[in-house]
Amino acid sequence: MTVVPGVAGSAAVTDVEEPASVDGPVLVETLAIGVCGTDLEICQGRYGAAPPGSDRLIIGHESLGRVIAAPGGTGLAVGDLVVGIVRRPDPAPCPNCAIGEWDMCRNGAYTERGIKERHGYASERYRIEPGFAVKVDPALGDLGVLLEPTSVVAKAWDHTERIGARSAAWSPHTVLICGAGPIGLLAALLGMQKGHEVHVVDRVVDGPKPQLVADLGATYHHEPVAALAGRADIVLECTGVPQVVVDVLANTAPDAVVCLTGVSSGGRTVPFDAGAVNREMVLGNAVVFGSVNANRRHYEAGADALSDADPRWLGRLISRRVPLESFADALERRPEDVKTVITFAA
Ligand code: BGC
Fold this sequence. Notes:
Layout: E1 2-3, E2 26-35, H1 37-43, E3 57-58, E4 62-69, E5 81-84, E6 87-88, H2 95-98, E7 111-113, E8 117-118, E9 125-128, E10 133-135, H3 147-164, E11 174-178, H4 182-193, E12 197-201, H5 209-216, E13 219-221, H6 225-229, E14 234-237, H7 242-249, E15 257-260, H8 274-283, E16 287-290, H9 296-308, H10 311-317, E17 318-323, H11 327-330, E18 339-343
The structure holds beta-D-glucopyranose.
Beta-D-glucopyranose is lined by residues 36, 38, 61, 86-87, 112, 115, 148, 152, 263, 292-293.
């Protein structure tokens, strides 16, 4: 499944070369590809870049595949279920990329499979370096496709906890998650696994999301975010919606740690009283930070979180499975959608 980045409506199933050996020694057949907001933006021509010398980009960064060839010494064997890591270090590399923390790349010259200058995983076969393929519990079956978004929330949680630890007596209790999409729901899952009191706020009142939140043991809200944010020790903002972000910033509790995870598109402005927000944050020692992507440690934490979760609950996150031939259906957003997955013949 390819697109011409920058050209809306160019997504198509096209014939491509067999995967290049420079991509890595491990050959994988693709089973499933998750679709997220980033993919929709790429298909709308608003994000993404093809590899140098190529017009089209093979998309797909949320993957699940089965190893079909792996040389000895790679730690992988034929039949293993694997998920491919999205980001590759910048070529310099910067100090963070040099130690495997490519999620913290400092110069922006990183590449991302299926997103930025590197082909993705939405092809029948792909090749990969063993260090960038993460094994998933075979008992998860196709739920393993949830690992990439889970790695993103595992990183958000990891950094939230590291930042919170600045205060020796920090012992967070109440967590607010803004947005009950896949990222918000997976963030809530990890929050429950960590033993917190988790609240999830979203604008929808029907569809599967309220019950998914309730079945985790968390509390679902659809009242204004402003009323909820001030009671949370941790806020994980997973919508990227400008008004929601501003309402969170304007209502931070003392010592709060606010993590922003939504990659929003600019251009929509909302009123913002910077002086008042500044005063509240200073007087309350609040922290607001952004979090993107994930390194191998976060994929491994995410894999553990998925293995510990109720598979029936995880199964309800995958609300539609669409065969590759009908990919255009997968790019439509329907009210009952949580996570749509494109399935491959293998
Ligand atoms: C992906 C991340 C990626 C980010 C920015 C997200 O959809 O999950 O891995 O870093 O987009 O390109």
